[in-house]
Write a structure and sequence with these properties.
The protein is an all-alpha fold and 176 residues long. Helices cover 80% and strands 0% of the residues.
């Protein structure tokens, strides 16, 4: 089939080309330009001649190419989003750990309050706080609680006073 042969096009495609050619002529284009634009438009819209043996690109192939292109583009975008999300999370975690280092006791107290509210076991949460704060701060916390218990013990009965003292001793022994 020689170049420029239009036998591979369907009747509908030929009618479309004629209509486009007429429109282009009305707009003031030359006969040659109008014909060139018309067939280029038909090729663009339908992918070339549709009759069998016309050597045209199949619609499937062009659709596959477009899908591949779109998938690659989406993957690149998703990769960029993921990276920024990861960096944001990392920065947030870093600032949280810095804040926790500055005030370990406060952070531990907050954590124990949350767990105590959830579980209702305030005593075990307090013990955990003392263990996590470690060193001198744990001793200070134990002394404070011992002082508090001795202050309030004046209004208690002797049995309660004795029990409070025992608990205080145990706390002081566990802290050191």
């Amino acid at each position: 089939m020689p170049r420029g042969d239009k036998s591979a096009y369907t009747d509908k495609q030929q009618r479309q080309a004629e209509h486009i050619e007429d429109s282009e002529r009305k707009e003031g284009r030359s006969e040659e330009d109008a014909e060139r634009i018309a067939w280029a438009t038909v090729n663009k819209q339908s992918g070339g001649g549709k009759r069998s043996g016309s050597g045209r690109k199949s619609a499937r192939k062009t659709a596959k190419k477009a899908t591949k292109k779109a998938t690659k583009k989406a993957a690149r975008k998703a990769g960029a989003k993921k990276a920024t999300k990861k960096a944001t999370k990392k920065a947030a975690k870093k600032t949280a750990t810095k804040a926790a280092r500055k005030t370990p006791r406060k952070a531990a107290k907050k954590a124990t309050r949350k767990t105590a509210r959830k579980t209702g076991a305030r005593k075990t949460a307090k013990k955990a706080t003392k263990k996590t704060t470690g060193g001198k701060t744990a001793k200070k916390a134990a002394k404070k609680t011992a002082r508090k218990s001795t202050r309030t013990s004046a209004s208690r009965s002797t049995a309660a006073k004795k029990a409070a003292r025992t608990r205080a001793r145990k706390r002081n022994g566990a802290a050191s």
